[in-house]
Structure formats: structure tokens, C-alpha cells
Amino acid sequence: MRAIVLTLVLIGLAACSPVQVKRVSGPTAYRSMTENALSGDQASEWARTTANGWGLLDQLDHQPEAGLASLREIVTSGRGGSQELFALAEFSFLHGEQSKQQPYSLAAVVYAYAFLFPTKKEDAPSPFDPRTRLALDIYNRAITTAFQSRRDDQVVLAPGTYALPFGVLRMAFDTTQLNWSDRRLVDLTPVAEVEVDGMRNRHRIPGLGAAFTARAIPRKDVDVQKSLIAPDARVAVTAVLRIDNVHEGIVTGQVRGLLDLYKANETETVVVEGQEFPLEIDETAPIATQLAGSPMWKQEFWGFFGRNATGVPLPILVSLEPYRPGQIPVVFVHGTESSPARWADMANDLLADPWIRQRYQFWYFFYDSGNPIAYSGMLLRDKLTAALARMDPAGKDACLREMVVIGHSQGGLLTKLTAVDTGNRLWDAGINVPPDQFPGSPKFRNLLERALIVKPVPSVRRLVFIATPHRGSYLTGGWVNNLLRNLITLPVNLVTLPIKAVKRGIFRHEISTSGSLPTAVDNMTPGNPFLEAFARTPVASGVPYHSIIAVEEKFPVIEEGDDGVVKYRSAHLDGAASELVVRSSHSTQAEPQTIQEVRRILHLHGEALQSDGCLLHQSTY
Q1: Domain boundaries, the chain
Q2: What is the Cα–Cα distance from 240 to 281, expressed in whole angstroms?
Q3: What is the pLDDT of residue 223?
Q4: pLDDT at 167
């Protein structure tokens, strides 16, 4: 009986299938399918299956260098093909990461390149094959790790002979590619592993190449004061390594390559082996990297009080890239106690729109926001006029003269001062005598005339006002003005000249008993003569203007509400080409509705130029 029972048990066990199937959740299944050397500590299922097919998986897991040599021999002998090249690329990258041996990272670049660009067209990977995107990512990341400095996170690009596990790579690189306009690119920093906090969105263009940010420092003999590029500008760049006869190089161990560095503002595609690819570009990381250590945050506060505590000379008109002929300038003007940094989210999202990115260039005006508004407006006009004269003295660039100026809060008042003909309206609001009878020095009289008797800047063709106090801010007035007037330090030419050269009684009540000129806070006080005269001044004919008005959610009636600083009735302007009310606080520049409205306006502006000298392709927005 025992023998019979034992026999039945053995028969039952023999009948059990060694293959079992169990159901898992969708997310679990997807994680298993997509796990790879870039996201974890083992290669993808595709690479592991290929290795296991040759009996090399255990060796690759425990003796990776021997396993990689065996897998390479399978390829060089002609027994292996594209699947083996992919496995070589991923296992080489994984071992390079785990062992910190850069020759294996460089080998991953070579193998991935060979997989992506086979000798025979029939071996070309399908765009629907997940390994194609993974191979691109391995190629991109491996370039970074292959040339990364061991002392820090920066990448050092230089021509030379580099070791491979199976030979050498002789790489050519033209170091003049590190020049960018009047700057030299240094401190190339990988962005794939950078986490960005404090910005609403992060925009990336997937493609070919290793994406970095680079710091742009002035080249020798460059006058930084006349340069449009910001002193601490960061630029997005992408490195692409082309391999000559890559399959032959894998066999012989003698690999030759050419490294090229592309600036994102100059090109977004690259041709490799006869095929056009988008470049891998991280559009947000350069902005975030620049802002993370920028002195602008401190300058916002000190600049309002007229104190330069950071060494940043104000006012300045800057950009994060060189002047580009054929692209329309968009000039952003910040508000009180603010800086260009406050436009970061808007610029980041707008530049993610290819149509805008390819047709507009962004400039930023940075100024002491405590100065009289007419004075700051004069400085803005001077900076714009000087920039145009410097960049296009012959007036050949029609797009340069289709400028859009966008201002937030006080910056909106400065924006309006680029496109008005005031006549003597502002002069008469503050001064009791005509310009030709002014008793002060010619120097000071000229300054006042330039600030108060305004003509439109011809190149300014459209305005956007965001939360702008056209009729004043209700937070100003009374004791606030008296306190701030004692704290704000005006420029020397605005402090000493009135006292020394102007008799009491020449100025109207805007001059305090001490003889000092009004500050920006004085100018934005409801009922202020300058502000009232300015509010009555229309925008120049032919210059459309748009209003974006913030109103906080707590107000049930929009027209009676405000944003915490400016009331709706102060921000509203009759005659606007459009008006959008955004449920937001005063700092509405980063709100999606505000950004989308600016995006719409820029598309509208571009479409309106179809028949003008600055020709743009039709927008599909």
C-alpha cells in the first residue's frame, strides 16, 4: 500500500507544470517592462533576455567585464547583430555607472550609436521599438558620464584620445564651439539629474545628444555694459558625438569620432548619418540654474531703495541670449521692488511654444523701482533706443522694429511711457513755468524735458499691461509715502540738482518741503497730479494695447474687486484691444491664464505682420 501511495504521489508531482502564470496589476507589469539601467540597478528585460540567450546573463551580473568581452566577441565574429549591440550598450552603461569607470560609459556611447545607426538599412531600429528611445537615452546619458569630471558634476569637453575597454577613441572637437557671441561657455553642467523646485513647469525637448547648461562669461576685451547678454547668463547646449565607421571601430578597437556642441538658441535639430533628429534640450534648467544663485533676489529689495548692494549696475537692458536678427523683441518690465526673475515662469512657458521660440527674442529691463516713474520711463526709452542703434545701425532688421513691451504693476506705467505723446501735459502737472522759462541749469532742464515731454519710441508696436495701477495703488499715500520717501535714495542727479538749481515755487506740490523729488510711490498715489495727467494721456495711435487685470477670488463682483494692491477700476483702460480678468493676486505673472493670454497676444502680433517687412509664417494658434 505504501508503495502504491508513493507511486501515485510521484506521478502527481510529475504531472505538475514547471511553468506558472499569475496575474499582476497594470502598474506592476509596466514597471517590470520598463525597468532599465537608467532607472534602476539592472538592465532592461530586452537586454537581459538577449544575454540569457547566449548563456551570459549570470556572467554579466557577477563578472560584468568578462561578460561584456564575451558579448562583444559574439558581435565582432558576426554571430550577433542589433539585439546584441543594444545589450552591450545597456550593460556597458550599467557597469560604468556602478564601477565609476568612464571607459565603459564611453563604450556605451559607441554601442548605442552602432545600434541606432546600423550599416544595413534593414537593421534600422523601428521608431515603435521601446529600445530605440532607450538607446537614445543611454547614448545621451553616457556622453555625460564619459566626460564628467571626477572632482565635481561638470563636464569637460576636449579633443584627445580616450580609453575604451576594447581599444581607444580618438575624438576631434573644435574648441571654438565654446564661443557664443561675445561670451565663452564654461562650467558645463549636466541637467538630466537636476531637480528643479520653485518653477511651475519644466519643459524638455526629447531628442539626440547630452543636454547641459553652460555659464557664459565675457570674452576678452568685451564691454559688458554694452552687451545685451546678462552678466550671469546660462545657456542650454547639447553635445553630439558622431562615430566614423562605428561597426569597423568596434571590431578593430580603433574608433574615431567628432564631438559637436550646439546652442539651443541657434539650432534645435541635427543631421546624423543622413537622418535629421531633434536635439535633446532642457529649456527650463538653464533658467532655474541661473536664478538659483542670482543676486537679483537681493537687488529687488535694495534696488527699490536706490542702494546697489549686489554690484549689479542699474538700469540695464539684458537678454539670456545674443541679439538675433529677424526675431521680434519682447521687452519685459518688472514692477515695484521686483526684478526680471519674476518673469521666469512666463518666459519658461512661452519659450516652450516652438512658434514663439523661433520668432521672438526676450529682453528684460531691470531698474531701481523707487525712482520717479517719469525718470525710469526715460531710462527705458534710452536703453531701447541705444540697443536698436547698436544692433542694427542701418535699420535693415524690420522685425527689430516690431517690438512688444509687457509691463507688470509699476512696470506697466513705464511700458506706457514708451508709446505716448505727452506734449506738455506731464510737465504742466508738476512745474509752474514753461520749459523755455525754467530757471535751472541747462543740464537739469534737459533731463526734465526728456523725462516729462515724451515722444513714442517708433519701434514699439504693441503694449501689454498686467495689473497696472493707471490710476494709482490704494496701498500708497499718507504715512506710507512719508516713511518710504525718507528711506529711498534717489540718484545723485535727481537729488542735488533740484536743490542747487531750482528756486522754491517753480515745482508744484510734488516737491516736498525739503526740496526732494517725488518717488515712484508718490507717483502711484491716487490723486497724484502726475498720475492723473498720465492717465489722461492716450496711447499713440496705431499701437494696440491689452490689459490683463488680476482680481482676487474673494470679491464676488469683479469690477469692484482688486488684487490686493491695485483695484480693477485703476487697472482698467478704455480702448484696449482686449481685456482679461484673471482670478489671482497682484503677482499674476506666473498664473496659467495670464501666460496663455500673453501667448495669444504674441501669436496675434505675429499674424498681424504678414504683410509687413517682418514676415512670419502663419500661426496655427
Answers
A1: 35-146, 160-270+277-285, 295-607
A2: 12
A3: 78
A4: 97
Cα atoms in the 13 Å half-sphere on the side-chain side of 82: 16
Question: In the prediction, which pLDDT does 501 show?
Answer: 44
State the pLDDT at residue 15.
Answer: 62
104 neighbors 96 (Cβ within 8 angstroms):
yes
Q: How far is CA 68 from CA 71, 81, 89, in A?
A: 5, 15, 10
Residues of the chain with pLDDT under 50: 297, 301-307, 478-488, 499-503, 510-514, 618-621
* pLDDT on residue 503: 44
Residue carrying the nine cell digits 537581459: 48
Predicted local distance difference test score (pLDDT) of residue 152: 74
**Distance, CA of 114 to CA of 117 (rounded, Å):** 5
Q: List, in order, residues 6 or more apart from 201 with CB less than 8 Å away.
A: 284, 345, 348, 349, 352
d(CA 591, CA 594): 5
pLDDT of residue 286: 86
Is residue 260 within 8 Å of 209, Cβ to Cβ? no
112 vs 138: CA distance, rounded Å: 7
Query: Whole-angstrom Cα distance, residue 397 to residue 402?
Result: 10
* CATH architecture of the domain covering 295-607: 3-Layer(aba) Sandwich (3.40)
3-state SS record for 229-292: ECCCCEEEEEEEEEEECHHHHHHHCEEEEEEEEEECCCCCEEEECCEEEEECEECCHHHHHHHH
- Residue whose C-alpha cell is 515722444: 455
Q: How many C-beta atoms surround the C-beta of residue 335 within 10 A?
A: 26
